[in-house]
Specification:
about 240 residues, about 15% strand, 7-stranded mixed beta sheet, alpha/beta
Length: about 240
């Protein structure tokens, strides 16, 4: 665990010395997707090093493609390793919705902004409304967003309810929803009450995109329930 924490903090601190250069170079790129793919390079490198240091391997199946178009990724949330696993595994670049406490971590905020991440204070309803507004704007600008509709880690104890508000981002922005099923991250830390870290294997499955037209026929609650069932069925196999 000490080695992995050292990689998490040390590599992020080292990478921060390059962020000014990356911001300048990113502005020279022509498309939103090109800018996002460039910003994601360092994040993917960081995530890969974190996984290697912890002895975590990942298998990805399904529709893992970058078509250059914005989408809302919707994933179940098992454990702390979900973020580095998804960063390393998913081909399409994305920003993610993060709890606001992460904003207090030194030198991380600028990287979060470069990746078009969005903050959420779960104790503040006004913050939830602002998150939806920021998420819709980011999607409309052409960025993809990753959100965990359970709101908190399940820690390997089965899926929690998918909050329908998360799907409002896709409905309002008119972008596809791409469900993701992730399995195995809770066994790395949460199975031991996060007191230790053990090597493990994680499986990630990327489902086919769901057209935004689905919201013309189904409510947010119905779409949320259907996506939750889709992910649960895959995890139960």
């Amino acid at each position: 665990m000490i080695k992995t924490v050292g990689v998490i903090i040390g590599y992020a601190a080292l990478a921060t010395t390059k962020i000014d250069y990356m911001e300048r170079h990113q502005r020279l790129l022509n498309s939103v997707n090109a800018k996002d793919r460039y910003a994601a390079l360092m994040a993917k490198n960081w995530a890969g090093r974190v996984l290697d240091s912890a002895g975590v391997t990942v298998t990805v199946t399904g529709h893992n493609k970058d078509d250059g178009q914005p989408a809302l990724f919707v994933s179940n949330h098992e454990g702390n390793f979900d973020i580095p696993v998804l960063m390393a595994a998913i081909d399409k670049p994305f920003g993610f919705v993060s709890k606001v406490e992460v904003k207090q971590i030194p030198f991380l905020h600028r990287w979060m902004m470069l990746l078009n991440c969005i903050y959420l204070d779960r104790s503040n309803r006004r913050s939830s409304l602002q998150m939806i507004k920021d998420g819709v704007q980011s999607l409309q600008e052409g960025h993809s967003v990753m959100i965990f509709p359970e709101g908190s880690r399940s820690k390997g104890h089965g899926l929690q309810e998918f909050k329908s508000g998360a799907f409002k981002l896709a409905k309002s922005a008119g972008v596809p929803v791409i469900p993701i099923a992730i399995s195995g991250t809770a066994k790395i830390m949460e199975a031991y009450d996060s007191r230790k870290m053990v090597p493990g294997h994680v499986q990630v499955h990327v489902f086919e995109p769901i057209s935004p037209d689905v919201f013309k026929e189904q409510s947010l609650q119905e779409v949320a329930a259907a996506v939750q069932a889709q992910i649960k069925d895959h995890l139960d196999v």
